[in-house]
Specification:
155 residues, alpha+beta, 7-stranded antiparallel beta sheet, 6 helices, 7 strands
């Protein structure tokens, strides 16, 4: 079974949340947890493990009113008043665990009206049983840690 999570970095905060699939096939992000950008990698790793483990399929479809309010917990986690402020400098990475691999896909922020677009060619993988490696890759893709592997010059 595929398990999913999403991570954002905005307003100086890392936000990690569970992604589940509703009975009608839509995805819904829930239960965001936030951390300062200097949070220890082990703390981020545990949040990722928890978010992926909570991912489910066939969850109940939200009512139209619940859909409208679905993103408010993310705005609260980012300590912003509205979606426009959230999106101003938001970075996003999707995480998908399948079998023994976690695939991390960074997204481009296209602005408040257009949302995010996956940069599929830049996806990275990490072993699912190495939560700290997954967290390290997430921090790189969010732009919070240097990517030493890609900075190395060929010999």
């Amino acid at each position: 079974m595929q398990q999913s999570a999403v991570a954002y970095f905005t307003n100086g905060r890392i936000i990690v949340a569970t992604v589940s699939r509703t009975a009608s096939g839509d995805t819904i992000d829930t239960d965001p947890k936030w951390f300062g950008k200097s949070a220890k990698k082990a703390v981020i790793a545990q949040a990722i493990v928890d978010a992926l483990s909570a991912s489910a399929i066939d969850v109940a479809d939200p009512t139209p009113e619940q859909w409208k309010r679905q993103f408010i917990p993310f705005q609260d986690a980012a300590a912003v008043k509205n979606f426009k402020t959230f999106m101003r400098d938001a970075r996003r990475v999707d995480l998908e665990r399948r079998d023994r691999i976690v695939t991390l896909t960074p997204f481009d922020n296209l602005g408040v009206n257009n949302g995010f677009e996956a940069r599929d060619g830049e996806s990275r993988t990490a072993p699912a049983d190495d939560a700290e490696a997954v967290a390290g890759m997430l921090l790189i893709l969010l732009g919070l840690r240097p990517d030493i592997a890609s900075d190395a010059s060929p010999a």
